[in-house]
């Protein structure tokens, strides 16, 4: 488990990694790789982006994934539609959970907002229940804030 200070350092690394690059897909690909390398006990990390009133799979690290998620459906669609972080200790207890990977047991999804609009979500899955705690939520929220600031400039 990471501390808030470690998440702050990770956010700074991400900012350095994408600074000066304006391509959204390239940046999100590197961000997913950075998170995959630095977070323990995860089996999937990536992005779903709004396209034609649904979430479409974006850059990720992990096993194959669901390509399309309806807004308001599953953990990702709920996070997007409510514009709230969804931290799920046991995905099998989440009504309407979409099982893209049977190995996933817990999940955290954070909406990404740019210039006042929700453009997608950061989705992180773990093969163990209760993987994500309050510190992870706060740290990842900080991480996403740094990402949003960069994306608002491109």
Task: Outline the fold blueprint.
Elements lengths: L3 H15 L5 H15 L5 E8 L2 E9 L5 E3 L3 H9 L3 E3 L17 E9 L2 E10 L7 H18 L3
Antiparallel strand pairs: 1-2, 1-6, 2-3, 4-5, 5-6
Helix pairs in contact: 1-2, 1-4
Describe the protein in words.
This protein has about 150 residues and is of the alpha+beta class. About 35% of the residues lie in helices and about 25% in strands. It has 4 helices and 6 strands. The chain has a 6-stranded antiparallel beta sheet with strand order 3-2-1-6-5-4, sandwiched between helices. Helix 1 (about 5-20) runs antiparallel to helix 2. It is globular and about 40 Å long. The chain starts with a helix and ends with a helix. The model has no long low-confidence stretch (mean pLDDT about 95).
As an assembly, this protein is: single chain
Low-confidence stretches: none
Estimated helix fraction: 25-40%
> What gross morphology would you assign?
globular
Structural class: alpha+beta
Largest sheet: 6 strands, antiparallel
- Ends distance: 32 Å
Query: What proportion strand?
Result: 25-35%
**Rg of Cα set:** 14 Å
Number of helical regions? 4
Strand order of the largest sheet: 3-2-1-6-5-4
Order of helices and strands: HHEEEHEEEH
Number of strands: 6
Overall mean pLDDT score? 95
State the gist of this model:
The chain contains four helices and six strands. The protein is α+β, with helices and mostly antiparallel strands and 154 residues long.
